[in-house]
Design goal:
heterodimer; A: mainly alpha; B: mainly alpha; 6 helices; globular
Chain lengths: 160, 125
């Protein structure tokens, strides 16, 4: 089957999806997708920044011996920031899992890169990390890449 | 530096591998349409019966502890952007593991992400 024919069939598949008895319209599915991706985008950077703050308190992990490596874990799991970070990442994971039940992985994953911009901003303004101009350029390019990928249809494969 | 590269490799490949396995498991149980808490718990229980989910969670746990290790060594504003390499791994995995059709536009976006990650990587010192 040619790729253009496949594209048309997939488009028809999307337009026909689910009337009222099957969970909403085409725009309803888009709303649901965007809302869950928004939750993914909020909880992921929040979790990462909390983990970053927690690990700064804990100190550097060492990997020279097994006992040295294991010694750090009691400190890791008694840090409030790390538990809050884990809770945020868990909320991120649940939202992400739900959106992946219908949207393509290669569609749902890239928008989460917006979290990278938020992480960089929080790292700079909350954790007082130095962010060089080159790093900002890199983050901007990643953000741009996200938008390029984001304007593609949510699903390209057949329903199972 | 070798330690950081190994940790980055684990974050990217175990993380993306985990996400791909979780995606496969979620596609297997079908689209989630009921968002009431009881129904969500029922969905989670159902998905725990899928082997791909367990493999996915195990790989994600490896990625999580590697992330903790990396965050203990480097700033979060360096670690998270560099870990965006998982978008490249994700596009490749979506194409070859899940059979998704990755369009030219998606590849262009992934390419921009790659250049961005390279800039962030060289901003380290």
């Amino acid at each position: 089957m040619s790729s253009s024919k496949l594209a048309i069939e997939n488009r028809e598949d999307m337009l026909q999806i689910e009337g009222p008895h099957h969970g909403g319209s085409y725009s309803g599915r888009h709303f649901k997708t965007y809302f869950l991706i928004l939750l993914v985008v909020i909880f992921s950077p929040l979790g990462n920044v909390l983990l970053g703050a927690g690990m700064k308190e804990v100190g550097p992990m060492t990997f020279h011996t097994v006992s040295e490596f294991l010694d750090v874990f009691p400190r890791v799991f008694t840090s409030g920031a790390i538990w809050l970070g884990i809770a945020s990442l868990f909320a991120h994971f649940i939202s992400y899992m739900l959106v992946l039940s219908w949207a393509d992985f290669s569609y749902a994953q890239p928008p989460t890169a917006m979290g990278i911009v938020i992480v960089t901003l929080l790292g700079h303004f909350v954790l007082h990390e130095t962010v060089t101009p080159l790093r900002w350029i890199g983050v901007f390019l990643i953000f741009l890449g996200v938008f390029v990928v984001g304007h593609t249809p949510p699903r390209t494969t057949e329903h199972h | 530096m070798l330690k950081e590269l190994v940790l980055l490799f684990l974050i990217v490949f175990a993380g993306t591998g985990g996400e791909l396995c979780v995606t496969r498991a979620m596609k297997q149980i079908g689209e989630v349409k009921d968002f009431r808490p009881v129904a969500l718990v029922r969905t989670i229980i159902r998905v725990l019966g899928v082997g791909w989910m367990w493999l996915g969670v195990a790989l994600m746990a490896v990625a999580f502890f590697s992330l903790l290790g990396m965050l203990s060594l480097e700033n979060v504003s360096f670690v998270v952007p560099v870990a965006a390499l998982n978008y490249v791994a994700g596009a490749l995995g979506g194409k070859f593991f899940l059979g998704e059709r990755v369009t030219g536009q998606r590849w262009a976006g992934v390419f921009l992400i790659c250049i961005g990650v390279t800039c962030v990587f060289f901003s380290r010192r």
